[in-house]
Write a structure and sequence with these properties.
The chain has 367 residues and is an alpha/beta fold. It is built from 16 helices and eleven strands. The chain has two domains: 198 residues, Rossmann fold (3-Layer(aba) Sandwich), CATH 3.40.50; 141 residues, Rossmann fold, CATH 3.40.50. Helix content is 42%, strand content 13%. Helix 9 packs across helix 14 and helix 12 packs across helix 15. GO terms for molecular function: glycosyltransferase activity.
Protein backbone atom coordinates (compact mmCIF):
# COMPACT_ATOMS: atom_id res chain seq x y z
CA UNK A 1 0.00 0.00 0.00
CA UNK A 2 1.24 3.50 -0.79
CA UNK A 3 0.16 7.15 -0.60
CA UNK A 4 -0.49 7.49 -4.34
CA UNK A 5 0.88 6.54 -7.74
CA UNK A 6 1.16 9.79 -9.67
CA UNK A 7 4.78 10.95 -9.75
CA UNK A 8 7.94 9.12 -10.79
CA UNK A 9 10.67 9.46 -8.17
CA UNK A 10 12.55 7.70 -5.41
CA UNK A 11 9.44 6.82 -3.40
CA UNK A 12 7.90 5.14 -6.43
CA UNK A 13 11.06 3.05 -6.93
CA UNK A 14 10.60 1.74 -3.38
CA UNK A 15 6.98 0.86 -4.18
CA UNK A 16 8.13 -1.09 -7.25
CA UNK A 17 10.81 -2.88 -5.23
CA UNK A 18 8.41 -3.93 -2.47
CA UNK A 19 5.94 -5.12 -5.10
CA UNK A 20 8.72 -7.22 -6.64
CA UNK A 21 9.43 -8.77 -3.23
CA UNK A 22 5.73 -9.60 -2.78
CA UNK A 23 4.50 -9.97 -6.39
CA UNK A 24 1.22 -11.71 -5.48
CA UNK A 25 0.10 -8.91 -3.18
CA UNK A 26 -2.27 -6.27 -4.58
CA UNK A 27 -1.15 -2.65 -4.44
CA UNK A 28 -3.59 -0.39 -2.59
CA UNK A 29 -3.35 3.35 -3.19
CA UNK A 30 -5.52 6.45 -3.00
CA UNK A 31 -4.96 7.72 -6.55
CA UNK A 32 -3.17 6.17 -9.53
CA UNK A 33 -2.45 7.73 -12.92
CA UNK A 34 -3.21 5.84 -16.12
CA UNK A 35 0.53 5.41 -16.77
CA UNK A 36 1.02 3.65 -13.46
CA UNK A 37 -2.08 1.51 -13.88
CA UNK A 38 -0.89 0.43 -17.32
CA UNK A 39 2.64 -0.20 -16.05
CA UNK A 40 1.57 -2.54 -13.26
CA UNK A 41 -1.01 -4.21 -15.49
CA UNK A 42 1.82 -5.15 -17.86
CA UNK A 43 3.65 -6.68 -14.89
CA UNK A 44 0.49 -8.63 -13.99
CA UNK A 45 0.10 -6.73 -10.71
CA UNK A 46 -3.28 -5.67 -9.35
CA UNK A 47 -3.73 -2.02 -8.28
CA UNK A 48 -6.72 -1.14 -6.09
CA UNK A 49 -7.59 2.55 -5.89
CA UNK A 50 -9.88 4.44 -3.51
CA UNK A 51 -12.96 6.59 -4.05
CA UNK A 52 -10.56 9.53 -4.40
CA UNK A 53 -9.47 8.23 -7.80
CA UNK A 54 -12.94 9.12 -9.10
CA UNK A 55 -12.60 12.79 -8.10
CA UNK A 56 -12.33 15.30 -10.98
CA UNK A 57 -8.77 15.43 -12.38
CA UNK A 58 -7.66 13.20 -9.48
CA UNK A 59 -4.08 12.78 -10.70
CA UNK A 60 -3.48 16.39 -11.74
CA UNK A 61 -5.04 17.88 -8.60
CA UNK A 62 -3.77 15.20 -6.23
CA UNK A 63 -1.34 17.56 -4.50
CA UNK A 64 -4.12 20.03 -3.72
CA UNK A 65 -6.58 17.37 -2.57
CA UNK A 66 -3.85 16.12 -0.24
CA UNK A 67 -3.89 19.35 1.76
CA UNK A 68 -7.26 18.32 3.12
CA UNK A 69 -8.35 15.13 4.86
CA UNK A 70 -9.46 13.18 1.77
CA UNK A 71 -6.40 10.93 1.56
CA UNK A 72 -6.69 9.83 5.18
CA UNK A 73 -10.33 8.91 4.67
CA UNK A 74 -9.37 7.08 1.48
CA UNK A 75 -6.67 5.02 3.23
CA UNK A 76 -8.96 4.25 6.16
CA UNK A 77 -11.70 3.10 3.76
CA UNK A 78 -9.71 0.04 2.67
CA UNK A 79 -10.63 -3.31 4.24
CA UNK A 80 -7.58 -5.36 5.22
CA UNK A 81 -9.37 -7.85 7.45
CA UNK A 82 -8.49 -10.81 5.20
CA UNK A 83 -4.75 -10.13 5.26
CA UNK A 84 -2.12 -11.45 7.67
CA UNK A 85 0.34 -8.69 6.77
CA UNK A 86 -0.05 -5.16 5.45
CA UNK A 87 3.10 -3.43 4.16
CA UNK A 88 2.79 0.32 3.63
CA UNK A 89 5.25 2.71 2.01
CA UNK A 90 4.49 6.12 3.47
CA UNK A 91 5.58 9.70 3.00
CA UNK A 92 2.28 11.15 4.19
CA UNK A 93 -0.75 8.88 4.64
CA UNK A 94 -0.26 5.18 3.89
CA UNK A 95 0.49 4.34 7.53
CA UNK A 96 -3.07 5.45 8.43
CA UNK A 97 -4.31 2.00 7.35
CA UNK A 98 -6.61 0.43 9.90
CA UNK A 99 -5.92 -3.25 10.55
CA UNK A 100 -7.43 -5.69 13.02
CA UNK A 101 -5.31 -7.09 15.89
CA UNK A 102 -4.51 -10.29 13.97
CA UNK A 103 -3.08 -8.38 10.99
CA UNK A 104 0.48 -7.13 11.30
CA UNK A 105 1.33 -3.78 9.79
CA UNK A 106 4.85 -2.82 8.68
CA UNK A 107 5.48 0.71 7.42
CA UNK A 108 8.51 1.70 5.37
CA UNK A 109 8.77 5.39 6.16
CA UNK A 110 10.29 7.75 3.59
CA UNK A 111 9.62 10.72 5.88
CA UNK A 112 7.07 11.87 8.45
CA UNK A 113 4.66 14.01 6.40
CA UNK A 114 6.52 17.21 5.60
CA UNK A 115 3.45 19.21 4.69
CA UNK A 116 2.09 18.97 8.23
CA UNK A 117 5.25 18.60 10.33
CA UNK A 118 7.49 21.05 8.43
CA UNK A 119 4.96 23.21 6.52
CA UNK A 120 7.10 26.36 6.38
CA UNK A 121 9.86 24.54 4.50
CA UNK A 122 7.45 22.46 2.42
CA UNK A 123 5.25 25.35 1.26
CA UNK A 124 8.04 27.91 0.79
CA UNK A 125 7.49 29.82 -2.47
CA UNK A 126 4.20 27.95 -3.07
CA UNK A 127 1.61 29.98 -4.93
CA UNK A 128 -1.30 27.61 -4.18
CA UNK A 129 -2.64 28.59 -7.58
CA UNK A 130 -3.50 32.11 -6.37
CA UNK A 131 -1.85 35.52 -6.91
CA UNK A 132 1.21 36.13 -4.76
CA UNK A 133 -0.50 38.82 -2.64
CA UNK A 134 -3.12 36.21 -1.59
CA UNK A 135 -0.55 33.59 -0.58
CA UNK A 136 -0.73 34.48 3.13
CA UNK A 137 -4.51 34.18 3.04
CA UNK A 138 -4.25 30.71 1.48
CA UNK A 139 -1.87 29.60 4.23
CA UNK A 140 -4.30 30.95 6.84
CA UNK A 141 -7.03 28.61 5.59
CA UNK A 142 -4.66 25.63 5.28
CA UNK A 143 -3.29 25.83 8.84
CA UNK A 144 -6.37 24.25 10.52
CA UNK A 145 -6.00 21.22 8.27
CA UNK A 146 -2.28 20.99 9.11
CA UNK A 147 -3.17 21.03 12.81
CA UNK A 148 -5.82 18.35 12.29
CA UNK A 149 -3.33 16.16 10.43
CA UNK A 150 -0.82 16.41 13.27
CA UNK A 151 -3.46 15.34 15.77
CA UNK A 152 -4.40 12.34 13.63
CA UNK A 153 -0.87 11.39 12.57
CA UNK A 154 0.56 10.57 16.01
CA UNK A 155 -1.93 7.83 17.01
CA UNK A 156 -1.95 6.49 13.43
CA UNK A 157 1.82 5.95 13.50
CA UNK A 158 1.64 4.26 16.90
CA UNK A 159 -0.87 1.72 15.53
CA UNK A 160 1.83 0.36 13.21
CA UNK A 161 3.52 -2.82 14.47
CA UNK A 162 6.92 -1.98 12.96
CA UNK A 163 8.19 1.21 11.33
CA UNK A 164 11.31 0.97 9.16
CA UNK A 165 13.03 4.31 8.48
CA UNK A 166 14.86 4.95 5.23
CA UNK A 167 17.63 7.04 6.84
CA UNK A 168 19.00 8.49 10.06
CA UNK A 169 17.20 11.80 9.58
CA UNK A 170 13.85 10.03 9.10
CA UNK A 171 14.60 7.93 12.17
CA UNK A 172 15.31 11.10 14.19
CA UNK A 173 12.17 12.89 12.94
CA UNK A 174 10.02 9.87 13.74
CA UNK A 175 11.40 9.77 17.27
CA UNK A 176 10.90 13.52 17.74
CA UNK A 177 7.40 13.88 16.30
CA UNK A 178 5.92 10.50 17.30
CA UNK A 179 8.13 9.05 20.02
CA UNK A 180 8.55 5.88 17.93
CA UNK A 181 11.83 3.94 17.59
CA UNK A 182 12.68 2.38 14.23
CA UNK A 183 15.44 0.38 12.53
CA UNK A 184 16.93 1.68 9.26
CA UNK A 185 16.92 0.06 5.83
CA UNK A 186 18.49 2.37 3.28
CA UNK A 187 16.98 2.61 -0.21
CA UNK A 188 18.95 1.12 -3.06
CA UNK A 189 20.60 2.31 -6.24
CA UNK A 190 20.01 0.36 -9.44
CA UNK A 191 23.13 -0.16 -11.57
CA UNK A 192 23.39 2.22 -14.53
CA UNK A 193 22.30 1.17 -17.99
CA UNK A 194 25.10 0.65 -20.51
CA UNK A 195 24.90 3.86 -22.50
CA UNK A 196 27.02 5.93 -24.82
CA UNK A 197 28.45 8.84 -22.87
CA UNK A 198 27.51 12.28 -24.16
CA UNK A 199 30.30 13.91 -26.16
CA UNK A 200 29.48 17.20 -24.47
CA UNK A 201 31.52 17.95 -21.36
CA UNK A 202 31.74 20.58 -18.69
CA UNK A 203 28.10 20.84 -17.67
CA UNK A 204 26.66 20.39 -14.22
CA UNK A 205 23.47 18.41 -13.75
CA UNK A 206 20.38 18.58 -11.56
CA UNK A 207 17.97 15.67 -11.60
CA UNK A 208 14.94 16.22 -9.37
CA UNK A 209 11.24 16.96 -9.15
CA UNK A 210 10.79 20.71 -9.58
CA UNK A 211 9.10 21.87 -6.39
CA UNK A 212 10.05 24.93 -4.38
CA UNK A 213 11.54 23.22 -1.32
CA UNK A 214 14.14 21.47 -3.51
CA UNK A 215 15.82 24.92 -3.94
CA UNK A 216 16.85 24.42 -7.55
CA UNK A 217 16.78 28.22 -7.83
CA UNK A 218 20.09 28.55 -5.98
CA UNK A 219 21.83 26.31 -8.53
CA UNK A 220 20.48 28.43 -11.37
CA UNK A 221 21.73 31.62 -9.74
CA UNK A 222 25.09 30.08 -8.77
CA UNK A 223 25.84 28.77 -12.27
CA UNK A 224 24.75 32.06 -13.84
CA UNK A 225 27.02 33.94 -11.45
CA UNK A 226 30.18 31.98 -12.31
CA UNK A 227 29.31 31.21 -15.94
CA UNK A 228 28.88 27.44 -15.67
CA UNK A 229 26.55 25.41 -17.85
CA UNK A 230 23.67 23.71 -16.01
CA UNK A 231 21.26 21.06 -17.30
CA UNK A 232 18.06 20.46 -15.31
CA UNK A 233 16.15 17.20 -15.66
CA UNK A 234 12.70 17.00 -14.13
CA UNK A 235 9.18 18.38 -14.10
CA UNK A 236 7.00 19.95 -11.44
CA UNK A 237 4.90 22.90 -10.32
CA UNK A 238 7.95 25.13 -9.80
CA UNK A 239 9.15 24.88 -13.41
CA UNK A 240 7.72 28.19 -14.68
CA UNK A 241 9.22 30.14 -11.79
CA UNK A 242 12.60 28.50 -12.32
CA UNK A 243 12.53 29.14 -16.06
CA UNK A 244 11.91 32.82 -15.36
CA UNK A 245 15.17 32.90 -13.34
CA UNK A 246 17.30 31.12 -15.93
CA UNK A 247 19.64 32.62 -18.48
CA UNK A 248 21.50 31.20 -21.46
CA UNK A 249 23.67 28.89 -19.34
CA UNK A 250 20.68 26.87 -18.10
CA UNK A 251 18.86 24.20 -20.11
CA UNK A 252 15.59 22.56 -18.99
CA UNK A 253 15.21 19.04 -20.37
CA UNK A 254 11.96 18.02 -18.68
CA UNK A 255 11.40 14.37 -17.90
CA UNK A 256 13.73 12.07 -19.84
CA UNK A 257 13.81 8.27 -20.40
CA UNK A 258 16.15 6.20 -18.23
CA UNK A 259 18.71 5.72 -21.01
CA UNK A 260 19.00 9.49 -21.48
CA UNK A 261 19.20 10.02 -17.72
CA UNK A 262 22.17 7.65 -17.40
CA UNK A 263 23.83 9.24 -20.43
CA UNK A 264 23.51 12.69 -18.86
CA UNK A 265 24.86 11.42 -15.54
CA UNK A 266 27.81 9.75 -17.25
CA UNK A 267 28.66 12.91 -19.18
CA UNK A 268 28.28 15.56 -16.48
CA UNK A 269 31.05 17.25 -14.53
CA UNK A 270 29.13 16.58 -11.30
CA UNK A 271 25.61 16.25 -9.97
CA UNK A 272 24.37 19.20 -7.89
CA UNK A 273 22.06 18.30 -5.01
CA UNK A 274 20.55 21.50 -3.59
CA UNK A 275 17.85 20.01 -1.36
CA UNK A 276 17.69 18.54 2.11
CA UNK A 277 16.42 15.05 1.31
CA UNK A 278 15.42 12.42 3.83
CA UNK A 279 17.65 10.07 1.84
CA UNK A 280 17.95 10.80 -1.89
CA UNK A 281 18.68 8.15 -4.52
CA UNK A 282 19.90 10.49 -7.28
CA UNK A 283 23.29 11.21 -5.63
CA UNK A 284 23.85 7.44 -5.54
CA UNK A 285 22.93 7.19 -9.23
CA UNK A 286 25.53 9.85 -10.00
CA UNK A 287 28.17 7.95 -8.04
CA UNK A 288 27.11 4.69 -9.75
CA UNK A 289 27.92 6.48 -13.02
CA UNK A 290 31.37 7.33 -11.66
CA UNK A 291 30.56 11.00 -11.05
CA UNK A 292 31.00 13.03 -7.85
CA UNK A 293 28.26 15.00 -6.10
CA UNK A 294 28.11 18.62 -4.94
CA UNK A 295 25.56 18.49 -2.12
CA UNK A 296 24.01 20.69 0.53
CA UNK A 297 25.40 19.51 3.86
CA UNK A 298 22.18 18.13 5.33
CA UNK A 299 19.86 15.14 5.24
CA UNK A 300 20.49 11.86 3.48
CA UNK A 301 23.45 13.12 1.46
CA UNK A 302 25.49 12.92 4.66
CA UNK A 303 24.88 9.15 4.66
CA UNK A 304 25.88 8.57 1.05
CA UNK A 305 28.42 11.18 -0.11
CA UNK A 306 31.95 10.82 1.28
CA UNK A 307 33.48 14.28 1.44
CA UNK A 308 36.66 14.68 -0.60
CA UNK A 309 36.30 11.17 -2.00
CA UNK A 310 32.93 11.02 -3.79
CA UNK A 311 31.90 14.66 -3.54
CA UNK A 312 31.90 17.94 -1.65
CA UNK A 313 29.39 19.80 0.53
CA UNK A 314 28.26 23.42 0.65
CA UNK A 315 27.12 24.81 3.98
CA UNK A 316 24.18 27.11 3.24
CA UNK A 317 21.24 26.93 0.82
CA UNK A 318 22.36 30.09 -0.96
CA UNK A 319 23.69 30.80 -4.44
CA UNK A 320 26.85 32.30 -2.95
CA UNK A 321 27.66 29.25 -0.83
CA UNK A 322 27.03 26.93 -3.78
CA UNK A 323 29.03 28.99 -6.28
CA UNK A 324 32.00 29.08 -3.88
CA UNK A 325 31.73 25.31 -3.50
CA UNK A 326 31.66 24.77 -7.29
CA UNK A 327 34.81 26.89 -7.67
CA UNK A 328 36.48 24.85 -4.93
CA UNK A 329 35.29 21.61 -6.57
CA UNK A 330 36.88 22.56 -9.90
CA UNK A 331 40.32 22.58 -8.27
CA UNK A 332 39.86 19.02 -6.96
CA UNK A 333 40.10 15.58 -8.57
CA UNK A 334 37.87 12.56 -7.93
CA UNK A 335 38.33 8.89 -8.70
CA UNK A 336 35.50 7.35 -10.70
CA UNK A 337 36.04 3.88 -9.21
CA UNK A 338 35.70 5.24 -5.68
CA UNK A 339 32.34 6.75 -6.60
CA UNK A 340 31.14 3.48 -8.15
CA UNK A 341 32.25 1.38 -5.17
CA UNK A 342 30.43 3.70 -2.79
CA UNK A 343 27.18 3.34 -4.75
CA UNK A 344 27.54 -0.45 -4.80
CA UNK A 345 27.18 -0.50 -1.01
CA UNK A 346 23.51 0.48 -1.52
CA UNK A 347 22.41 -2.47 -3.66
CA UNK A 348 18.91 -3.78 -4.37
CA UNK A 349 19.93 -7.17 -2.99
CA UNK A 350 20.95 -5.63 0.35
CA UNK A 351 17.61 -3.80 0.43
CA UNK A 352 15.65 -6.97 -0.33
CA UNK A 353 17.47 -9.04 2.30
CA UNK A 354 17.00 -6.35 4.96
CA UNK A 355 13.26 -6.05 4.27
CA UNK A 356 12.68 -9.81 4.30
CA UNK A 357 14.70 -10.18 7.50
CA UNK A 358 12.55 -7.58 9.28
CA UNK A 359 9.31 -9.09 7.99
CA UNK A 360 10.36 -12.54 9.18
CA UNK A 361 11.47 -11.21 12.56
CA UNK A 362 8.11 -9.49 13.12
CA UNK A 363 6.06 -12.50 12.09
CA UNK A 364 8.13 -14.87 14.22
CA UNK A 365 8.09 -12.51 17.23
CA UNK A 366 4.36 -11.76 17.04
CA UNK A 367 3.15 -15.26 16.21
Amino acid sequence: MCDDLVQHGGAEKIIEAISDIFPEAPIYTTVASKKWLDYFREKDRRVITSFLNRFPFASKLNRYYSIFYYHVLAIESFDFSNYDLVFSISSRYAHFAITNPATKHICYLNTPGRMFWEPFDYFENESFGVPYFLKGTAMFFIRPFIFLMRLADVPAMKRVDLVISNSKITQERLKKYHGVESPITHPFCSPPLTVKTSAEEGYYLILTRLVSWKRVDIAIRACEKIGKKLKIVGEGPDMKRLQSLAGENVEFLGRVPDETKWELLSGCRALINTQKEDFGIVPLEAMASGKPVIAYRAGGALETVVEGKTGVFFEEQTAESLSNCIERFEKMTFDSDSCIKRAEQFSSENFRCSILEKVNDLICTKS
